[in-house]
Amino acid sequence: MMNKKNVYKLFLFLFMLLAFFISVYPLLWVVIQSLKTETEFLESIWTLPARLNFQNYATAWNDAGMSRYFMNSVVVTLVTTAVNLVFVTCAGYAFAKLKFPGKTFFYYMIIFNLLIPTAIILLPMFTMVNRMHLVNTLPALVFPYFQGFAPMGLIICRNYFEDLPDELMEAGKLDGCSNMQVFRKIMLPLAKPILATMAILSAMQVWNEYLWALTSITDESKYTLSVGVALFNKKTETVGYTPVFAALSISALVIVVVYLCMQKNFVKSIAAGAVKG
């Protein structure tokens, strides 16, 4: 006979299994549809494919121009993530460990951006980008994406650096290190888990962003993958549905792969925050 502890563990396991299924099933369903022929999809959306049909991926990648959109997204994501890591990490360290006039004021002014809906600043951002002659260029995406990620990234990074002992800074300064050397040689190596977390969050935000990419880019050759997939979705009457599912799978699975590659450090940062918090 099961005791209360084992019943609780079984209930918790079943609940987690259900949550996992609910989370994964939509992506799994899309991948299954992408491997069907058009006839199989139209016959039933609930059956498995008779055989794996990878031609849909070739159609999406070559005929629909997904390869070009994919490379645009990769470039924008990598550049934006690098910019986010450099500037947000430096700012997080400064707000956590350094003393300077207006420190609290500037911190809350940056955080205040989280309260502003994107739709409200869409027109001002476009006007600014247009005056800088950056419309229809990839840099038009990078800087607004940085502005969008900076407040959340600053909160994460600042809190992490605040939890690191001040004695580490003092020891470094006793050895003759400047503030920048302390940051680069002592603090930064300890921040690898939080850097991985910010990289994942930044990449997800940039990779999936649609509204600003659609607003600031009108040249089809400069479209990102999210805009390209939406454009491709309008061509179902000519190319069919299954290649569109293949394009969606390509877009979604990239983030899954990135997370799996950086999962170890991501989990470390969550565990560290739980212990220190």
UniProtKB/TrEMBL annotation:
Q: Which cellular components does GO assign to this protein?
A: plasma membrane
Give the record's membrane topology.
Multi-pass membrane protein
Q: Where in the cell is it found?
A: Cell membrane
UniProt KW Transcription keyword: no
Report the main location listed first in the record.
Answer: membrane
Q: Which family does it belong to?
A: Belongs to the binding-protein-dependent transport system permease family.
- Species of origin reads Enterocloster bolteae 90A9
Gene3D superfamilies linked: MetI-like
Domain of life, per the record?
Bacteria
> Is the Thylakoid keyword given for this protein?
no
Domain ABC transmembrane type-1 residue range list = 70-263
From the record, give the transmembrane residue ranges: 12-32, 69-93, 105-126, 138-161, 241-262
Which Pfam family, any one, appears in the UniProt record? BPD_transp_1
Protein name (record)? ABC transmembrane type-1 domain-containing protein
Enumerate the UniProt keywords alphabetically. Answer: Cell membrane, Membrane, Transmembrane, Transmembrane helix, Transport
Record GO biological process: transmembrane transport
- What CDD domains does the record tag this protein with? TM_PBP2
